[in-house]
Amino acid sequence: MTARSTWRAVPGPVRLLLFSQFAFNTGFYLVVPFLAVHLSSGLGMAGWVVGLVLGLRTFSQQGFFFVGGALTDRFGVRPVLLTGCLVRIAGFCTLAVGQSLPGVLAGTVLTGFAAALFSPAVETGLAHAGARLEEAGAVTRAELFALDDVVSKVGSLAGPVLGAALLGVPFSTTCFVAAGVFAVVLVANARWAPRVDGVPRSTSVTAGWGSVLRNRRFLVFAALYSTLLLAYNQMYLALPVELVRATGSQRALGAMFVVAAVVTVLVQVPVARWARRRGARHALPAGFAVTALAFALVAAATVLPRPDLVPALAPAVGFVVVLHLGSALARPVARDLVPPLAGERHVGAHYGVLASLGGVAVLLGSGVVGAVLEPGAVTPWVLLAAVVAVSGVGLAALSRRLGPAAGRA
């Protein structure tokens, strides 16, 4: 089953969730990749201030996913999704008019926190819709999550392309355009999103957090799985350094993201379908092993002589392709595994904590990697390959103890 056939198999409300995810990513990547240039060149802020702002944006997003997940359990998908759109619109409008550090910080925090509301709501909605579609024999939940990855990736590619087309206009105009994208998502969901989404309601926001903290199997799973987000984040941290090693510049970085998008669109759904048939106990370790191989490829390229017939960009291209193949194997199956690990209760809180732990892994791991990362250094690539491989071994051991939830075919 391809991404197109999967799209045709899902009903209108689920398509609306997927469209919302696409538009949300488009609007986000329309602005955020160009934020650093605006802060440094447009507002004349120092480099450490730019780093602070960008770090705060990541923290306000990843660090608060657990809040959005718990709110989704309490109030449902639709209210939290709409609130996320409103907060994102407010954030971009604040960035558009903010000319001082307090205004920029306020817009940045609002922009990040909006995703912490929106994304767990969409993920929870897809999880419950996927369960119903799987029971009806339409598509599996893993295939639906794979399609979500596809539309998200296309949105993350469309956003920078549209942003680059707007480079000649003031940054404030770009922010208002992005706010308009989110206004479309807001209106569409306010008009057509079902008011009753089938997500069980929690009695309180804190009930979901208590359920997660008592779920030791899930916490172990989330800690091991968090290294996949750390690995993927190297597209932004380690890959540019590899390009400098190979070519002397980062000019090919945009092309690498195009390669990533093409690989995701072509293989995500078919690979996820195969992984779903194999079950999490096989697909998760395989996905992590393939991801570790991506880092091993670059590690080998830094220490071995390159034959004349091999292009300089070959290790970087290989890294991107193999990294996304590993992600295609692991991510949909892992996201499909969260509801059974949660006992189909407080699913939003579990998705939120899963994302927040990934954010912690990125924050801590990227600091370690960044300390040893330089063109030609083999240590960071070996370190990342080892961390991902160890996580894969841990997930293999854990999945053998999960019973039917990890081995469904």
UniProtKB/TrEMBL annotation:
User: Sorted alphabetically, which Gene3D superfamilies does this protein's record hold?
Assistant: MFS general substrate transporter like domains
The residues forming a coiled coil are none
Record field: transmembrane: 12-32, 38-59, 80-101, 161-188, 218-239, 251-271, 283-304, 310-330, 351-372, 378-398
Its keywords, alphabetically, are: Cell membrane, Membrane, Transmembrane, Transmembrane helix, Transport
Q: Where in the cell is it found?
A: Cell membrane
Major site of localization recorded for this protein:
membrane
Q: A single Pfam family, by name?
A: MFS_1
Q: Which residue ranges does the record assign to the Major facilitator superfamily (MFS) profile domain?
A: 13-403
The name of this protein is: MFS transporter
Please name the source species. Answer: Kineococcus endophyticus
